[in-house]
């Protein structure tokens, strides 16, 4: 799939908007659909959509046996583990708080790149990482005074670390397979990972209103199918370092949309911490010397 740089920029922007709004949809959907069942539903639907796509092209997605462990592992980490953390975290926190925590993933990836690949970091990147941690810490401390939901932050932390591992594992797959093939296989293996946990959950089917169904479909079609595909295309064309700058928009979109749609309100200290965190992420990624796999799905 050949994509121009201009189209890749548009796709990266669209991804940030789609994923920023996803926090609101998850917040609404988990009031009825349990976390693991929600993950299963959205990725089963997304997988079916990709199967229809391949059927229309009259082709089958490729996967060599030697690449099966890494493809399956990246799907289980980037889909199952990530959304197990995110869905459970959003149940306990506001959509705004959750998006800000996830929005620090680029910082975690830069640090992981330094620890595991020996990549050199400049003073600006070190400063940005420290500033981002300070901003998140300020927001978390203030949030705990209000809601006292430390488990929510633990779940979101698990999600963030899972996405960092997923991004590193996905990079070699993109050198061998198309973006649609990678997205399909990871979604399929991720859906299979949800299955045993979803079977243990119970759901109030009477509460499955058109609003809940609409939000589940939005998560499946736009966030899990199109969002993942747009992300992989933009990362492949622009490089993950450039793509991450657009991903910095996710918490901004989520906080603004949560204010107008869900009526969520952050305290002045929370807003201040969020602004500091986003600024730190921007400083950390704005002048990275080489592409790095850092972004955020939802």
- Give a quick account of the main beta sheet: strands, pairing sense, barrel closure: none
Structural class: mainly alpha
Strand and helix order = HHHHHHHHHHHH
Rg, Cα atoms, Å: 18 Å
- Counting DSSP E segments of at least 2 residues, the number of strands comes to 0
Alpha-carbon distance between the termini?
24 Å
Shape: globular
Low-confidence stretches: 288-295
Number of helices: 12
In terms of DSSP E residues, the strand content is under 5%
Determine the mean pLDDT. Answer: 83
Which range best describes the helical content: under 10%, 10-25%, 25-40%, 40-55%, 55-70% or over 70%? over 70%
Provide structural commentary.
Helices cover 78% and strands 0% of the residues. It is mainly α. α3 packs antiparallel against α7, α3 crosses α8 and α9 packs antiparallel against α10. The chain is globular.
Record the SSE blueprint.
Layout: H1 5-29, H2 35-57, H3 68-92, H4 95-102, H5 105-117, H6 123-146, H7 150-174, H8 179-198, H9 210-238, H10 240-247, H11 249-262, H12 268-285
Helix pairs in contact: 1-4, 1-9, 1-11, 2-3, 2-8, 2-9, 3-7, 3-8, 4-11, 5-6, 5-7, 5-12, 6-12, 8-9, 9-10
Quick recap:
The protein is mostly helical and about 300 residues long. It has helices at about 5-30, 35-55, 70-90, 95-100, 105-115, 125-145, 150-175, 180-200, 210-240, 240-245, 250-260, 270-285.
